[in-house]
Design brief:
Layout lengths: L25 E4 L21 E4 L5 E2 L11 H6 L21 H14 L3 H51 L4 H30 L1 H4 L4 H38 L1 H11 L4 H5 L3 H32 L14
Antiparallel strand pairs: 1-2, 2-3
Length: about 325
């Protein structure tokens, strides 16, 4: 089994190019002056590596939880697009020189204001060191568990992707045939449920083997099918909008998986985020066409099933 699945050439051959948003490139950064998080507006605290900074736009965020109800500032930043460099000038990588005399003066001033200032610095340093040690100990066992979980997920995802891609080798009409069979199966299931509802609700009043009951059942089933297919078209259109948004934010999702879950989608899962978005966009267009055709057919059947005004009138006795 190959390590990755490749996107068929038929997919995306006639795709309209959509501009994808740029993702933040966050890395640990040590600040030489008090700096606030651009997400929660809280102070970035610590002796070193107080937070993360974007290499492109200079966004500053907490590594995790912030203030004011922000559970994960890094995750929120990764879901926002990066504006990139402003005026072709990126964030400078060189640190501004700081005079030792100014630093000593600031330290003395803070020590006078807070008698326990140096003790708090020592305690904070111990906390930072212990945090790094605990992280190194936990990372070993977590990495092993992550590898096993990714292997199980990949063994489930890759065969499914390969089956979906194999449909492309049979042509587009074969794909539409499968979708039509799916619509027929769903329609048959809905019709059975509608018939059961008719038996439970209308049978005590109209009977089961009368002309009126058969006409009512026919109209009832056609109405339910038409309503169901109209609802299905609305859901498909909403999914199409969501997938279009996913296609534009592929870079953001890929960077989010890489930064938060330490996950390389194409290597660890066998398919990239962009590959999933392209496949989803192709199939949602096909589902939109098949759903619309099925909805029109259901509308025509529903219109044809409407009874005349005298269909349920009892015949007058001579």
């Amino acid at each position: 089994m190959s390590s990755t699945t490749t996107l068929p050439k038929a997919i995306g051959a006639n795709e309209e190019h959509e501009e994808q948003e740029l993702a933040h490139l966050l890395e640990e950064h040590t600040y030489t002056k008090p700096t606030n998080c651009d997400i929660c507006k809280g102070l970035l605290v610590g002796l070193w590596s107080q937070g993360l900074q974007c290499k492109l736009c200079g966004l500053n965020v907490h590594r995790g939880e912030g203030v004011g109800g922000h559970d994960d500032c890094r995750a929120e930043a990764l879901f926002k697009g990066c504006p990139g460099c402003h005026n072709d000038v990126c964030v400078p990588t060189t640190k501004e020189p700081v005079r030792v005399r100014d630093v000593i003066e600031q330290m003395r001033q803070m020590a006078n204001e807070k008698p326990n200032f140096f003790r708090e610095i020592r305690d904070q340093m111990d906390k930072d060191i212990n945090s790094q040690i605990k992280g190194m100990i936990v990372s070993a066992s977590a990495e092993e568990h992550k590898t096993k979980s990714l292997l199980r997920a990949r063994n489930s995802i890759v065969p499914f992707i390969q089956k979906v891609d194999s449909v492309e080798s049979y042509g587009i009409w074969f794909a539409y045939s499968l979708l039509c069979l799916g619509h027929l199966a769903i329609g048959a299931l809905v019709a059975c449920i509608a018939w059961i509802g008719f038996v439970l609700v209308l049978f005590p009043r109209h009977g089961l083997f009368t002309v009126s009951s058969f006409k009512l059942a026919h109209v009832h089933n056609m109405t339910v099918l038409y309503s169901f297919h109209c609802s299905l078209v609305i859901i498909v259109l909403l999914l199409r909008r969501l997938i279009s948004l996913m296609n534009r934010k592929c870079n953001l999702l890929d960077q989010f998986l890489r930064e938060v879950f330490k996950l390389e989608a194409e290597v660890d899962l066998g398919v990239s985020v962009n590959g999933v978005a392209k496949r989803a966009q192709l199939w949602i267009r096909r589902i939109t066409v098949s759903s619309s055709v099925t909805c029109i057919a259901a509308m025509l059947l529903w219109q044809a099933s409407q009874p005349s005004s005298s269909s349920f009138q009892p015949s007058s006795s001579v």
